[in-house]
From TrEMBL:
This is Xanthine dehydrogenase small subunit. It is an enzyme of class 1 (oxidoreductase). GO terms for molecular function: 2 iron, 2 sulfur cluster binding; FAD binding; iron ion binding; xanthine dehydrogenase activity. It comes from Paracoccus subflavus. It holds the Pfam family CO_deh_flav_C. Residues 3-88 form the 2Fe-2S ferredoxin-type domain. Its EC number is 1.17.1.4. It comes from the Bacteria.
């Protein structure tokens, strides 16, 4: 065990002996290090003004991703390389190609959001030199700019891609050296303290299991896309906090199922969704913005138990299961049985989600829908997952799950009954649209009224029918995303 947090900041080693559970990366950068290019806009991971890159070791080497520093806890940066806008440089120490293109194409007006936009485009420029307009728009989902209208920013991103230079970029040149330094920082449990707050970073999953048996009331933090707001908005005490974002990263496909470690992020899972459940890929890209998808994990989205979590409606419709672990004991639970009531799940003290198992269902008709006030980087008002098996024109099996319409993600059992055994026809889906009214009693809140949610739930059955019966019918706006 070690009592020090170790990471790299703009290539330089940082060692901190005193770190609190609630200390954010943004505050460390701005207050402690005076790296003020990273801005605080919303303090909830929504606007992107605080975007920095975090390089972390993955199975395929060192990966740099844009993240929200405002809700990223400092302790979660152990063994990582944090890169801020101050580290960017071009040939000879001048402007980086992204910065130069932003100047040339007038991509900045008031300038407040500009550093965050530059960092998001920097990550895209490194990973995808030939990015299309659609790729750029997706990369900018988590960056809000109220001045430019985005057109000059997109032009700047295209121009930077044409300018090239990725192979000579500092993060590419230094990649192997940085990776070696990061490997040397890992291996032991880290326990930190400041002002009575405790932050713990387990060495591995077995260490996590032992730790939670001893500290069953600890706050488990994976991506912090929700817990971060507990601190920045509600000033909640999260100590002792156990940081697990570096654990449970396994990904594999076997026996027609995707098996994901609970620590797999939305971005890490995206290629598997694209390749094995393509009908849900567009939905997957609407989970937060790029920064949120790089931080948030599927296991935590489930364990958090929110009725508006984005992954459970789709995963329940597909018949997903989860593996729960306490100590060395494991048990498998159908995901729809995990959610009991609002704020309550089938999870014992000291137990945690270790793995998520998702049937790919290539034989079924699958769809996933998200309805929100804003298309990108917004919280769901209503989400739905559909998975229907049709045999000889008859619906043999129907699994439909909604989020945002009850205290937990919940199957529409009445509507499922109205579909099962019936012909795959318009009248059948009209009957299901009527039946779903008895499945839920939605609440009215700031995102939508109960009446709106009920109407949306019914209309999604009609939408599913239109999409499945006439695949060429333009009833849905999709993004033609490249690989």
């Amino acid at each position: 065990m070690t009592p020090a947090l170790r990471f790299l900041l703009n290539g330089q080693p940082i060692t901190l002996a005193e770190v609190g559970a609630s200390d954010t990366l943004l505050d460390f950068l701005r207050i402690d290090r005076r790296l003020t290019g990273t801005k605080e806009g919303c303090a909830e991971g929504d606007c992107g003004a605080c975007t920095v890159l975090v390089g972390r070791l993955a199975d395929d080497g060192l990966v740099y991703e844009p993240v929200n520093a405002c809700i990223r806890f400092l302790a979660s940066c152990h063994g990582c390389h944090v890169v801020t806008v101050e580290h960017l440089r071009g040939p000879g120490g001048g402007l980086h190609p992204i910065q130069a293109a932003m100047v040339e194409h007038h991509g900045s007006q008031c300038g407040f959001c500009t550093p965050g936009i530059v960092m998001a485009l920097y990550a895209l420029w490194m990973a995808n030199p030939d990015a299309s307009v659609t790729d750029i728009e997706i990369a900018l989902q988590g960056n809000i700019c109220r001045c430019t209208g985005y057109e000059p920013i997109v032009k700047a991103a295209l121009a930077a891609g044409r300018a090239g230079g990725q192979a000579a970029d500092a993060l590419a040149v230094e990649r192997e050296l940085v990776a070696a330094k990061l490997r040397a920082m890992r291996g032991e449990r880290v326990e930190l303290c400041r002002g009575g707050e405790r932050a713990i970073i387990p060495a591995d999953v077995d260490d996590l299991a032992a730790l939670l048996e001893a500290e069953p009331k600890a706050t488990i933090i994976a991506g912090a896309t929700d817990v971060g707001l507990w601190v920045t908005k509600f000033m909640r005490d999260i100590s002792p906090a156990v940081f697990i974002g570096h654990l449970m990263k396994s990904r594999r496909v076997e026996g027609g199922e995707i098996r994901l470690g609970a620590g797999v992020t939305y971005s890490e899972a995206a290629p598997l969704i694209r390749d094995h459940i393509p009908a849900a890929y567009d939905y997957w890209l609407r989970i937060g913005g790029w920064q949120v998808r790089n931080m948030g994990t599927i296991g935590a989205n489930i364990a958090n138990g929110s009725p508006i979590g984005d992954t459970p409606p789709l995963l329940i419709a597909l018949g997903a299961r989860i593996v729960l672990r306490r100590g060395t004991a494991r048990r498998e639970v159908p995901l729809d049985a995990f959610f009991i009531e609002y704020g309550r799940q089938d999870r014992a003290s000291g137990e945690f989600v270790e793995e998520v198992i998702i049937p790919t269902r290539p034989d079924a008709r699958v769809a996933a829908y998200k309805v929100s006030k804003r298309r990108d980087s917004d919280i769901t008002a209503v989400a739905a997952g559909f998975c229907l098996t049709v045999e000889s024109g008859t619906i043999a099996e129907a699994r439909v799950c909604f989020g945002g319409t009850a205290g937990v993600p919940k199957r529409a059992t009445g509507a499922e009954a109205a579909l099962t055994g019936q012909p795959f026809a318009r009248d059948t889906f009209e009957a299901a649209a009527r039946a779903v009214a008895d499945d839920f009693r939605p609440l009215t809140d700031m995102r939508a009224s109960a009446e709106y949610r009920s109407a949306v739930a019914a209309n999604l059955f009609r939408r599913f029918w239109l999409e499945q019966s006439e695949p060429g019918l333009p009833v849905r706006l999709t993004q033609a995303v490249g690989a």
